[in-house]
């Protein structure tokens, strides 16, 4: 019987990966991280361009079609298109910028556990930066990501 249930769950998880893994972390926004990591939060807010990345697209929004604007969200907001990620400025203002979690991964489990270090990405790899800092961007902005810049 248990096997039947397990394989049913496994089959279900193929179609609804987020549902069966109820423990899967979702995005909470940088301000929530700042409750406990005030130093990192302060320097991120003061120095990282990511802290105002939504403004960068808002400035150009008038010149963009709604479809083009949505394309910007993937890199200029936190978790767009992923469980608990950015939806719109009205619905999820706390995820409007490219926040802590674009590097450290979704943080709800880490936060709810009171800071269990196993439940957050400690050392984001350079590989993970390339999702947004891709070849095309690197060329057009003349930018090569440095591991410790742009964070805190
Ligand atoms: C309730 C307080 C709390 C909140 C909120 C919180 N953290 Fe933490 N965090 C901690 C504590 C405590 C540690 C230290 C754990 C340890 O050293 O065992 C920690 C450690 C970390 C580490 C280092 C992990 C390691 O392996 O040393 C990172 C990275 C981190 N937090 C990122 C975040 C991010 C990103 C957020 C927001 C999504 C966040 N934290 C929210 C309490 C918190
Ligand atoms: C979800 C997309 C995304 C990921 C992942 C990402 N970045 Fe960024 N990053 C951005 C955006 C967007 C900007 C530009 C913000 C603006 O100016 O509007 C930026 C800006 C920067 C800058 C410019 C300088 C500054 O002061 O902010 C640096 C450096 C940087 N990122 C480093 C990194 C590194 C290192 C990683 C990986 C550990 C990383 N980024 C991962 C989206 C991302
Ligand atoms: C694939 C990820 C990605 C997408 C999609 C994306 N951006 Fe960016 N954008 C970046 C990164 C990374 C940077 C930072 C590059 C750097 O600092 O060298 C950036 C920088 C910028 C900047 C410059 C900010 C500054 O301070 O110099 C503007 C403006 C901008 N993006 C607007 C947009 C708009 C508008 C869209 C949608 C049409 C968009 N971006 C889509 C990743 C992206
Ligand atoms: C651009 C990617 C990036 C962003 C954005 C970012 N971090 Fe980090 N963070 C890193 C990297 C890389 C390390 C590892 C640094 C090391 O090992 O020395 C790190 C380390 C940490 C640590 C471990 C202690 C330390 O300072 O080394 C904490 C806590 C932390 N980050 C919290 C945060 C919080 C809170 C935010 C948002 C306010 C944030 N980070 C935003 C890349 C990022």
UniProtKB/TrEMBL annotation:
The keyword Signal applies. The keyword Signal applies. It comes from the Bacteria. InterPro entries: Cyt_c-552/4, Multihaem_cyt_sf. It comes from Solidesulfovibrio magneticus (strain ATCC 700980 / DSM 13731 / RS-1) (Desulfovibrio magneticus). It holds the Pfam family Cytochrome_C554. Residues 32-105 form the Cytochrome c-552/4 domain. Gene3D superfamilies: Flavocytochrome C3, Chain A (1.10.1130.10). Keywords: Signal. Residues 1-22 form the signal peptide. This is Cytochrome c family protein.
């Amino acid at each position: 019987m248990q096997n039947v249930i397990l394989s049913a769950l496994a089959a279900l998880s193929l179609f609804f990966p987020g549902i069966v893994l109820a423990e899967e972390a979702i995005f909470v926004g940088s301000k929530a991280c700042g409750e406990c990591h005030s130093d990192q939060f302060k320097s991120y807010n003061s120095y990282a361009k990511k802290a105002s990345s939504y403004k960068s697209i808002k400035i150009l929004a008038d010149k963009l079609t709604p479809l083009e604007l949505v394309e910007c969200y993937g890199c200029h907001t936190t978790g767009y298109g992923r469980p608990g990620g950015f939806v719109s400025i009205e619905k999820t203002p706390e995820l409007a910028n490219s926040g802590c979690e674009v590097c450290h991964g979704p943080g709800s489990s880490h936060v709810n556990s009171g800071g269990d270090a196993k439940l957050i990405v400690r050392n984001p790899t350079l590989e993970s930066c390339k999702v947004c800092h891709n070849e095309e961007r690197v060329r057009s902005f003349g930018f090569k990501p440095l591991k410790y810049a742009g964070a805190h």
